[in-house]
């Protein structure tokens, strides 16, 4: 795994750019296969405070490929996804916010939607309000591919947080998520 992270901040805003890639040949050799898994990604995370309004946003561009060895078709990884959270403290201890989710789905049987670089971990969790984190419970799949069929997502969420005192926070979250594309690639090459 390789990664580069660069950030800059002021009192009012912060920006963070990152690139990462993984070259996973070893697991395939251990399993007796001649395959290579090479996902990569680039992203930018921006946070800002505008008076009583706070903004947290991130855009990610993901790619790479998975080659299962001689005689089989390789699978390309593709993923573009965007997240934004706009929130503010309306009363002492009460924070209200709205979130936006978008991820492009895929429509090619030799392409798999990528939502992260490290499979089965390191995915985005809106409950933690980004950036890249762990999966949301009880959602089985990644929030950027909620039905697990590589169809992306268009959605929004609302959240209310109440902190009666330091160290204790109650959160109420609700999400409406829908596929970005109506293609159903489940069960075809690349839709693993």
What would your notes on this structure say?
The protein is an all-beta fold. Helices cover 3% and strands 53% of the residues. It has one helix spanning 26-30; strands spanning 2-9, 13-21, 36-50, 53-67, 75-91, 94-103, 111-113, 153-165, 168-178. Strands 1, 2, 3, 4, 5, 6, 7, 8 and 9 form a 9-stranded mixed sheet that branches. A hairpin with a 2-residue loop joins strand 8 and strand 9. The longest helix is centred in the first third of the chain and has 5 residues, at 26-30.
Brief synopsis:
The protein has one helix at residues 26-30, and strands at 2-9, 13-21, 36-50, 53-67, 75-91, 94-103, 111-113, 153-165, 168-178. The protein is an all-beta fold. The longest helix has 5 residues, at 26-30.
Q: What's the arrangement of secondary structure elements?
A:
Blueprint: E1 2-9, E2 13-21, H1 26-30, E3 36-50, E4 53-67, E5 75-91, E6 94-103, E7 111-113, E8 153-165, E9 168-178
Parallel strand pairs: 5-7
Antiparallel strand pairs: 1-2, 2-3, 3-4, 4-5, 5-6, 6-8, 8-9
Q: Structural class per helix/strand content?
A: mainly beta
Total count of helical runs of at least 4 residues: 1
* Biggest β-sheet strands, sense, barrel: 9 strands, mixed
**In whole angstroms, how far apart are the ends?**
22 Å
Q: Name the poorly predicted regions.
A: 131-137, 187-192
The proportion of strand residues reads over 45%
Q: In angstroms, what is the radius of gyration?
A: 19 Å
- What global shape is seen? elongated
The proportion of residues forming helix, as a percent range, comes to under 10%
- The overall pLDDT, averaged over residues, is 79
- Would you count the extended β strands for me? 9
Order of helices and strands: EEHEEEEEEE
